[in-house]
UniProtKB/TrEMBL annotation:
UniProt-annotated site: Important for acyl-CoA specificity, residues: G111
A single GO molecular function term of this UniProt record: homoserine O-succinyltransferase activity
Annotated positions for site Important for substrate specificity: S192
Family: Belongs to the MetA family.
E.C. numbers: 2.3.1.46
Gene giving rise to this polypeptide: metA
Record's protein name: Homoserine O-succinyltransferase
UniProt keyword Transmembrane present: no
The protein's annotated pathway: Amino-acid biosynthesis; L-methionine biosynthesis via de novo pathway; O-succinyl-L-homoserine from L-homoserine: step 1/1
Length: 313
C-alpha cells in the first residue's frame, strides 16, 4: 500500500520516479479503510531533502500511511522556501487537539548545543509531553533520541570529543523483539553525531530494551517496554550521498573532519560512496509501523487512551 501525501509536495515526483506508489488525495478518500495517521516533526534545516528521505522509508509497508508535516516554529529558514513551509507544514496549534498513530521526530544540527540553549527547547518539551496522551508510538531519531532521553529519563547531555561519522556495524541483542524481526545478526547503519549513547549508561539509568549496539557507535536502537517510545541514534533515512555532502560542508567550514568511516570505497573521498544500509533502514521503519503503531493503535483515534496498550508482542 502507498503513502498519502499532497500531490504538489516535491517528494511526490521523486518517489514516483523511484517506482514508489504514492496515492493521490482523491483516490485515498475513495478507499474504505482507515490509514495510519503519522506526524513528522522535521527539525532538519534542509526540510525538503529530509522529508523525502523519511517518506521513502514510510512507503515500504502494506499499510496506507497518511503523513502530515509539522514544523517547530514559524521562523524563516535559508534552506527551505517559505512558500513550501506555509503550504505543506502544520503549526503545532493546528494539530494539538488531534490524536495520531505515530510521531517521528527527526535529528537536528544541535550536537554541541546545550538543551537549555536550544531556541525551541520549550516547544520540544511541549510536543513530547503532548505525545504521551495523543500518539501511539513516537520514533526519536539521532538528536531527537538524545532530547527524548533527557525529557523521559532526565539523562544529561553526553557529548563525544570527536564527531561520529560513517557507516558502522551493529549487533542485535534480541532477535525475537518485534523491532528486529527480519534483521541480520549484524547490519550496517550510518551515524553523524556528537552525542554519546553508551550501552552501559543507558542500561544503568533507564528501563529501555537495548536492541542493537555497535562497539564504535554505542547504542543504535532501543525502545520502552510498551514500544511507545523508540530511539534510533543513527540515520537510517540517509541517502547515499548525505554523509558525503556533510563531509564537504565541514571541509568548507575549515573543521578538518575525519573521513567518514567505512563509507567511501578504499576510504578515498574521490570514490563515489555506496549505500550499504538501505535494506535495514526500510525494515526498521516497516517494523515500527507494523508492531509499534498498527498492532497497538486503537481503530478509532478519538478513543485514544493509554489503557489501550499492552506489553504483549
Amino acid at each position: 500500500m502507498p503513502i498519502k501525501i499532497p500531490d504538489q509536495l516535491p517528494a511526490t515526483d521523486i518517489l514516483r520516479s523511484e517506482n514508489i506508489f504514492v496515492m493521490s488525495e482523491a483516490r485515498a478518500a475513495s478507499q474504505e479503510i482507515r490509514p495510519l495517521k503519522v506526524l513528522l516533526l522535521n527539525l532538519m534545516p534542509k526540510k525538503i531533502e529530509t522529508e523525502t528521505q523519511f517518506l521513502r522509508l514510510l512507503s515500504n509497508s502494506p499499510l496506507q500511511v497518511d503523513v502530515e508535516l509539522l514544523r517547530i516554529d514559524n521562523r524563516p529558514t535559508k534552506n527551505t522556501p517559505t512558500e513550501h513551509l506555509d503550504t505543506f507544514y502544520r503549526q503545532f496549534d493546528m494539530v494539538k487537539g488531534r490524536n495520531f498513530d505515530g510521531l517521528i521526530v527527526t535529528g537536528a544540527p544541535l550536537g554541541l548545543v546545550q538543551f537549555e540553549d536550544v531556541l525551541y527547547w520549550e516547544e520540544i518539551q511541549t510536543i513530547m509531553n503532548w505525545a504521551k496522551a495523543h500518539v501511539t508510538s513516537t520514533l526519536f531519531v539521532c538528536w531527537a533520541a538524545q532530547a527524548g532521553l533527557k525529557l523521559l529519563y532526565d539523562l544529561p547531555k553526553r557529548t563525544r570529543k570527536e564527531k561520529l561519522s560513517g557507516v558502522y556495524y551493529h549487533q542485535i541483542h534480541d532477535c525475537h523483539h518485534p523491532m528486529l524481526r527480519g534483521f541480520d545478526d549484524t547490519f550496517l547503519a550510518p551515524h553523524s553525531r556528537y552525542a554519546d549513547f553508551s550501552p552501559e549508561y543507558l542500561a544503568e539509568h533507564t528501563d529501555l530494551d537495548i536492541l542493537a549496539t555497535s562497539e564504535q557507535a554505542g547504542v543504535y536502537l532501543a525502545a520502552t517496554k510498551d514500544k511507545r517510545n523508540v530511539f534510533v541514534t543513527g540515520h537510517p533515512e540517509y541517502d547515499v550521498n548525505t554523509l558525503h555532502h556533510e563531509y564537504l560542508r565541514d571541509l568548507g567550514e575549515g573543521m578538518e573532519p575525519n573521513i567518514p568511516v567505512n563509507y567511501y570505497p578504499g576510504d578515498n573521498p574521490e570514490n563515489p560512496p555506496v549505500a550499504s544500509w538501505r535494506s535495514h533502514g526500510h525494515l526498521l521503519f516497516s517494523n515500527w509501523l507494523n508492531y509499534c503503531v498498527y498492532q497497538q493503535t486503537p481503530y478509532d483515534l478519538e478513543h485514544f487512551s493509554e489503557d489501550n496498550f499492552t506489553r504483549d508482542d
